[in-house]
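Dear support,

Our group has been running a series of protein-ligand predictions, and this particular one with adenosine-5'-diphosphate is the one our PI (initials K.S.) wants archived with full inputs and outputs. We had some confusion internally about which version of the output was final, so please treat the block below as the authoritative record. The input we submitted was:
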Amino acid sequence: MKSKTAIFPGSFNPFTRGHADIVARGLGLFDRIVIAIGCNAADAEAAAEAIRRLYADNPAVEVVVYSCLTVQLARQVGAGFILRGVRSVKDFEYERDLATVNMQLSGIESVILFSRPELSTLSSSLVRELDAYGEDVKPFLPDLP
Ligand code: ADP
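Confirmed final output from the archive:
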């Protein structure tokens, strides 16, 4: 059987429980998930290292930093799918436009998972904001295995 690979692109600044939930559910659909951090994301290499530690025991998950188009990276790593998450109607239009352009560019299918209701208000920017004002952000971040 053909192995199915998806890339999960994003800024992941930081990688939250919301992102981890999309990866966990994506692993039910794909044999391999490549988490791809855009290189213009702040501290992309440090973020990549932190996410690699999280999935150190899971050979189906890889982490890369990239500086090309998402569809170009998908081709490079042999991914036939782009995995993304949608929290709300605010995300919906953005994700639809991205998926449409990526389909037009490459024929690559985007697979969009709706966030769990309890994670639908969680964003990296919220975590950054709370952190900047000294709040404990651990409840929003995935537990190390
Ligand atoms: P980007 O900067 O490309 O939007 P993000 O790191 O913010 O990247 O998010 C990457 C993907 O994860 C996006 O598809 C985003 O909608 C999704 N995502 C972010 N937070 C959550 C969450 N709490 N639940 C589900 N999906 C999420």
